[in-house]
Design a protein that fits this description.
Blueprint: E1 2-6, E2 16-19, E3 22-26, H1 36-54, H2 58-75, H3 78-83, H4 86-94, H5 100-103
Parallel strand pairs: 1-3
Antiparallel strand pairs: 2-3
Helix pairs in contact: 1-2, 1-4
Amino acid sequence: MFLVFNKLIPVKGFAAMAVYPFIFVRSECKSYQHSERWQILIRHEKIHFEQQKELLLIFFYLWYVIEYFIRLVIHKNSNEAYRNISFEREAYKNEGNINYLSTRNRFSWLKHL
């Protein structure tokens, strides 16, 4: 895992974005690097790493974008569409569980479709 602090990726409004093996983090988030909030953020992104490995990265992003647009049609709200993507639902549900990555079953995101 490589952390990349910058002001461009992810776009404003998001704290971090995983693109295996990198986690891009907004520069303004660097200040809470040694907090519980930071641990949750990194765990969330590491869950995405596992999803990306399962789908060979390219299929993860293809599925992500297609599901986002389907959810956007359903919810008619971009934030709700984002929050309801199966990958995000799995990550948000389990980001607080420090043992999740060691007990996670492969393709667990499918339970959140």
